[in-house]
Amino acid sequence: MGNAVRELLEFYVDAGVDCALLDAPQDRFAESAAEKAKRGKTTSAKPNQEPVQANIDTPQPVLQAIAKIPNEEVIANAQTLAKAADSLEILRKSLEGFTGCNLKNYAKNTVFADGNPQAKIMLIGEAPGRDEDIQGLPFVGRSGQLLDRMLKAIGLDRKSVYITNVIPWRPPGNRTPTPVETELCRPFIERHIELVAPDILVLIGASSAKTLTGRSEGIMRMRGRWTTYKCGSRDIPVMPIFHPAYLLRQPAQKRLAWQDLLTIKRKMEEITEVS
Ligand code: URA
Questions:
Q1: Nearest by Cα to 182 from 204, 207, 163, 206
Q2: Residue to mutate (ligand 1; options 103, 111, 122, 126; most atoms within 8 A of CB)
Q3: In principle, which of 48, 49, 154, 203 could form an S-S bond with 240, CB 3.0–4.6 Å?
Q4: Ligand 1 centroid vs 25 CA: distance in angstroms?
């Protein structure tokens, strides 16, 4: 591959354009030129240039055909499926079979969870990124490696914690999930928490913290303070923490992240003492 092409591809990947939506390129300029021509207008072609010939027979992208506008029925279906799941395996299968969230159309994998479902501590991030989508596991990219080091610092690892995300499909280009996407996935993450029934919930980053606490403050205000998550008749202690991706960009904030990790460690010790 020539250098120029490689650099262009690297530029696209850095910008988050790293998945093909169709098998063949679609020339949108040609399409709009053809539309204009059909309406009797001239194209923007320069006087001595051939007008762009659009292939108006190009089939519509497959994704347009399968993308759905989410409605209340789809949310109700998500709730029914999630409620009916009485084991993690069934919940995983239900998510894999759920077609109501368009994010799934672009994702390579449904990223369900990693770690120990018997763990006392459950960590929940926002949504998979590129590496997670490829490997089908949460937090395995750069931010996941930092998360592993953070856990190790307080004596934890993937055998002693359980990790998942609010959204199990990677949003294209790692964009923030929309409120509708979040609401479609909410019944599944709520059921996921019920089935794991952890003693402590750690919410990784602002998006997960806002979704699962229902609070609107920023992560700066929420981090480091215990709150509770209502899970049936239980109140689970919840600690929002900075997202490791943020810490990679703002390493000076690791000082506060360390304080939060120590707070979590103390809570784990308290819980172990009383049990
Ligand atoms: N960021 C997340 O929130 N979750 C992942 O799994 C990876 C990156």
A1: 207
A2: 126
A3: 203
A4: 30
As for ligand 1, residues whose beta carbon falls within 6 Å of it are 125-129, 132, 138-139, 143-144, 165, 204-205
Domains of the chain: 72-274 (3.40.470.10)
Q: How far is the CA of 173 from the centre of ligand 1 (A)?
A: 13
What residues have CB less than 8 Å from 215, skipping those under 6 apart? 209, 222, 227
60-90 pLDDT per residue, tens: 455 555 666 777 889 999 999 999 999 999 9
pLDDT for 50: 47
Q: For ligand 1, what atom is nearest to the CA of residue 165?
A: 4
Picking from 81, 189, 49, 41, the residue whose alpha carbon sits closest to that of residue 126 is 189
* Range name among 22-26, 156-160, 170-174, 231-235 with the lowest pLDDT average: 22-26
- Closest Cα partner for 132 from 156, 98, 92, 164? 164
Q: How far is the CA of 168 from the centre of ligand 1 (A)?
A: 10
Quick one: pLDDT band at residue 51, thresholds 50, 70, 90? very low
Q: How far is the CA of 127 from the centre of ligand 1 (A)?
A: 5
Phi, psi torsion values for 236, nearest 5 degrees: -95, 130
pLDDT of 52 higher than 50: no
pLDDT of residue 71: 79
- Please tell me the predicted confidence (pLDDT) of residue 33: 86
